[in-house]
Each structure stands twice: as C-alpha cells, then as structure tokens.
UniProtKB/TrEMBL annotation:
Belongs to the CPA3 antiporters (TC 2.A.63) subunit D family. Residues 468-485 have a biased composition (Gly residues). It comes from Streptomyces olivaceus. Residues 452-465 have a biased composition (Acidic residues). Its main location: membrane. This is Na+/H+ antiporter subunit D.
C-alpha cells in the first residue's frame, strides 16, 4: 500500500505531459483523460485514507534514500482525509467547467493552458498534503502558485492581470519568507524532515524555536488568508472565472490551514504562540463577517465569509487540544465543500442573469427553483444550522473552548456564536435580495458583464461580434456585443465581451446540465457529512489523537 502514496502527485503531472504532447487536438479524448485521472486520484485518496485509518501512517522514501537526504511522502489520517475531500471537489469543479465550456472554447488555450494548469494545481495540492519535510511542502506551494497564477489571469483581461499580480506579489513574499525559515531550520537542526525535526527542535534554544514557529505561522497565515494577512483575497478571487474561484476559495486557503495543523502539532507541541493564534482567529471572524455584511456582490460576500470562517479553524489550532484539533479538522473538510459549492452556485447565477450584483437580482426562487435549492442548502450549512455539518464542526470547537476555559477561549466561544449568527444574517440577506423578492425592473431582460469593455484588450468587442457562447447556451441574440462599460443594456442570451479566456459569455436561462449536476453533487457531498456525522467525528478525533501523539508519524517515517 505504501507504493500508492506518490501516485496522487505523479498521475496529474504525467497526464499533463501527455496533454502537452497531444497539443490542441482530440478535445473529447483530452476531456476524458482529465476526468479519468482526477477520478483515479479520488479512488487512490480514499484507499490511502482507509489504509491510514486501519494500519497507521504510510510513508515512502523516493529512490529509497532515507531522511534527511531523500524525499519522504507520508499519508496519515489527516492527509488522507484532506486528499479525499480535495480530490472530490476538484473532480466536481472540472465537470462544472467542462459544462460551462470554459475549457474547450478555444483551439489553443483550453488544451495548452486550462487543463495542464488545473492538473498541475491538483498535483501541487496533493504534494502539500503528502509532504514529509519542509522542502517538499515548499515545492508543493510553488507548484500551486505557478498553476494558480495561470488560472487567475487566464483570458488576459486587465482586471484579472491586476488581481493576479497582487496575488503573485503576496505569494512571492511568503515564498521568500518560507525559504528563509527553511534555511534557518536546517542551520539549527541539520534536517528539514518533519519526523526528525520533531525530536531535534526540542533541543533548540526556546528563542530560536519561537522565531522559527512565528516565521512558519506567518507564511501559512498568508496562504490561509488569516487576518491581518488576508487583504489580498477579496480582490483576487472574485475576478477569476467561477470554477477557478470556486476551487481556489474552497481549497487553496485550506492548504495553509493544513500546514498550520501539521507543523503546530508535530514540530511545536505546547507552542508558545497559542494566544496569538487565538487573537488572529477572533480578528479573522470579526473583520471577515463585518466585511461580508457590507458587500452587495455575491462573490465578494462569499470571499469575506471565507476569511471569517478561516477563524474557526485557527481557533481550533490555537487551543491545541484533542477536541479542538478534531473540531478544526471537521470544519476544514466541511468548509472546503460548502464554500466551493456556494461559489459554483454564484457562477450559475452569473451564467443565468449576467451578474452577481445583489441589487440587480431578484425573483430567482420563483423563476429558478432548482437554483434556489442549490443555494439555500449550503448557505444554511455555512451558517451552522442544526443538524448540518457546519453545526457539528462549530459545536465541537465551542465545546473545546468551554472545556479549555480561560479568557481567550471564552472570547472565541462568544465570537464564534456571534459570527455564526451574522453569517446567517448575511445568507438571509442574499436570499432575500437574489431569490425571495421580486425581480427589479428590467432584470429579466438584461445580461450584465462583470468586466467592462474598458478592462478588455482593444478590439475585444470586435472579436466578440458573432462569437459563440462560452457555456453551452447558444446565442439567441444578434448584433454586436456590448460590454457593461458602454452603459447599454444587453439582451438576455446575447453575446457580450468578457468571458473566460477573454472571449465571450452568453447569459442563458437554461443552464448546462453538467454545471447543475456538478453543483448538485457538491451539495449532496456537503449533506453527506451530516449523515455520516458520527463516523466523521470519530475519524477526526482519531486523527487529532494521532497528531498530538506524534509517535505514530515519527515511527512510520524513521522505522523506530
């Protein structure tokens, strides 16, 4: 079974190479192999999770080079669960994107850009979850950075380039800081392997150890969008195409949370920065949810709720107890799925009505009841309405806070309750504006472009004239497309200039079935955490016990 550990990383990379060899040909075959490889990664992830639960952590030394020389990959309960959830989500997002037509509209870009970049992103995420040392954790981050920059800026519009540039600058800063932390760790401990560091860092002077802990936490907090290091997120994610935004918001920030979980429990047990983490958690909850309350665009609302709910996970890490770590793991799995689902629904709304601006939406509960259900269920899940999985995770964290006692713990319990109530308020606000109230005058007759004509490259409007839809809807209108910057209404169904790949987007009341099916399965996946709440909680508590014990991980890697 140990031989399966590298495959979630290797399979997407190998298929990416195959796609580059094939080039812009055989579109159906390319779609098939993309779906097949992500399906295979999902199956492998489940096998690794089950094997780690039954037999303990699995490890493999690539090339049979022992630490600290060789590359070590490790799959335990935590990494197995994260792999399984992320693989399921990335597969669903790929199906969604194919239904939207975003990956196959152009003869060059989909094959040469989107599919390879997406598979490389999946490989980077898998590498991060399986990394057994700091260097390969860094490599996983950099693989994700390269792929995510391509996906954020795909289409080359000015808005996406600006947002992508901000994302890359922040990510490069965190990468440099990460490299400095790795160099310092190697200088004081003579290794970067997690299992070896677990013992050697305890012999390092407390001041140096605290400095290393603070540097690594800063790196991971940037990746996870923990306040005050989260200012880049609300402006970066909403500009990307809906499937890209969904997988980024749902998954990439959780890679930072996973890294915090791994290093805080394995390398820095009994850490001295617990109070600082709890302060950051409380600030993230408060600032994020208040920012969400102030927004009127659905994508920005969801971006700010993302920052807010990262605070719940950091809350669990800061308490550093079995119950809090277990609750944090439950909440990570829940949030990956629910946040991704909500962004997929936002994409469906944008595809149908041409905008995610809440002031220009209305009447969707009557005109699109299926879309209303697809939004309502994950929205209530995010708010933590019993007995949904959001409630299970929050209850576990709040119980752990009550059991721990102390000023910070009680402050976070109160902050968690208030944030949950405000999240419910925000979701109710979205429901009332977009779904429950009557549609504003003219809303049914217009499609609105999020990116104005001025943001596109010169000549985009000319290129868009007569172009096909970006998403399976066909073109029911005629005449030249007009961007939102023109101030002219665009008839529903007409081609407008500002879609994926900088081409065109068609508003359509009849949404492509793969988009609806992928979103529906994502909703069902979120509900499955409720149905399987007992086994899930038992599994995450076992994972928390394993993380805090450290011995099973160390013995699996070093063979002691």
């Amino acid at each position: 079974m140990n031989a399966l550990v590298p495959l979630p990383v290797l399979l997407p990379l190998c298929v990416t190479g195959l796609k580059l060899v094939i080039g812009p040909r055989l579109h159906r075959f390319q779609r098939f192999i993309s779906l097949a490889v992500l399906g295979a990664v999902l199956v492998l992830s489940v096998l690794l999770m089950v094997a780690a639960d039954r037999h303990g952590p699995l490890s493999v030394h690539l090339g049979d080079f022992a630490p600290p020389v060789g590359i070590t990959l490790v799959a335990d309960r935590l990494s197995g669960l994260m792999l399984t959830v992320s693989s399921a989500v990335t597969l669903l997002v790929l199906v969604y994107s194919l239904g939207q037509g975003m990956a196959d509209r152009d003869d060059q870009a989909p094959v040469g850009v989107f599919h390879p970049a997406y598979l490389i992103l999946v490989a980077g995420v898998s590498c991060t979850f399986l990394a057994g040392d700091l260097v390969n954790l860094y490599v996983g981050f950099e693989i994700m950075l390269v792929a995510s920059f391509v996906l954020l800026t795909i289409g080359g519009t000015a808005t996406r380039i600006r947002a992508g540039s901000t994302y890359v600058i922040i990510s490069l800063f965190s990468s440099v800081l990460f490299l400095v932390a790795i160099a310092m760790t190697y200088a004081v401990a003579g290794t970067v392997n997690f299992a070896q560091l677990a013992g050697r860092l305890q012999e390092v002077p407390i001041g140096v150890r605290t400095l290393l802990e603070a540097m690594l936490l800063t790196v991971f907090a940037i990746k996870a969008a923990v306040f005050p290091l989260a200012a880049w997120l609300p402006d970066s994610y909403p500009t990307a195409p809906a499937p890209v935004t969904a997988v980024f918001a749902g998954l990439l920030t959780k890679v930072g949370v996973y890294s915090m979980l791994r290093t805080q429990t394995l390398l820095f047990p009994g850490h001295r920065l617990g109070d600082l983490l709890m302060l950051a958690a409380l600030a993230s909850m408060a600032v994020g949810i208040l920012g969400a309350v102030a927004q009127t665009d659905l994508k920005r609302v969801l971006s700010f709720t993302l920052i807010s709910h990262i605070g719940y996970m950091v809350f669990g890490i800061g308490l550093a107890g079995r119950g809090s770590i277990g609750g944090a793991i439950v909440y990570v799995a829940h949030h990956i799925t629910v946040q991704t689902t909500l962004f997929l629904v936002a994409g469906l709304i944008e595809r149908r009505d041409g905008t995610t601006e809440l002031t220009r939406l209305g009447g969707l509960a009557k005109s699109a009841p299926l879309l209303a259900v697809l939004f309502f269920v994950p929205a209530m899940n995010l708010a933590g309405i019993p007995p949904l999985s959001g409630f299970i995770g929050k209850l576990g964290l709040m119980r752990a806070g009550v059991d721990a006692g102390g000023g910070w713990a009680w402050a976070l319990v109160a902050g968690s309750a208030a944030t949950s109530l405000l999240t419910l308020y925000v979701m109710a606000k979205v429901w009332n504006l977009a779904f429950w109230r009557d549609a504003p005058p003219g809303a049914e007759a217009e499609g609105v472009v999020l990116e104005s004509a001025e943001d596109d490259e010169p000549g985009d409007d000319e290129d868009a004239e007569g172009a096909g839809a970006a998403g399976g809807g066909g073109t029911s209108g005629s005449g030249k497309a007009t961007g939102s910057g023109s101030g002219l209404p665009v008839p529903a169904g007409a081609v407008v200039s500002a879609g994926f790949l900088g081409q065109s987007i068609t508003t359509t009341k009849r949404l492509p079935w793969p988009m609806l099916a992928a979103t529906g399965v994502a909703v069902a996946l979120g509900l499955s955490y409720t149905v399987l709440g007992g086994p899930l909680t038992t599994f995450t508590q076992a994972a928390a016990t394993e993380l805090l014990a450290r011995t099973p991980y160390i013995e699996a890697v070093l063979g002691r």
